[in-house]
Amino acid sequence: MGNLLEGAPDPEFDAVKIATIYFISPPGYSPDLPMDDTWTAFVKHEQFWNLCHAPQRIPDPTPIEPIRLQTGLAGGIADSIFSSLLAPGNDAFNSALQVLRNRNLAGRFWSL
Predict the structure, then answer these.
(1) Residue 99 CB: number of other CB atoms within 10 A?
(2) How confident is the prediction along the chain (112 residues), in pLDDT tens digits per residue?
(3) What whole-number distance in Å separates Cα of residue 105 and Cα of residue 54?
(4) At residue 96, what are phi and psi to the nearest 5 degrees?
(5) For the whole model, what pTM was predicted?
(6) Quick count: other Cβ atoms within 10 Å of Cβ 107?
(7) Angstrom distance (rounded) from CA 85 to CA 41
């Protein structure tokens, strides 16, 4: 698989070219006639014997606990003020965590 464009979604499958099959007609065969058992098949292998595949493991999500400050000052009114002051920091932390978790889930192919 080639490199994905930034922001493009990750494909939901892994693919690799295994072989190309060529069918060769006998000499003088008319292109108007359908293919029959006189044609010969040739295979060009792109992978070696015992091809293996390993998908990426999807990490388990970790719960995000926002920073809170519960004081009970001014009859609880100060708690809402503290929450509004802490909200931008919690949002920035959540955004940074999402960037760090963003990864390519493309699998790997190999052969012996």
Answers:
(1) 8
(2) 444 455 556 667 788 888 999 999 999 988 889 989 999 999 998 888 788 888 777 666 667 788 777 787 777 788 888 888 888 988 888 888 877 777 667 778 777 6
(3) 11
(4) -65, -40
(5) 0.42
(6) 14
(7) 72
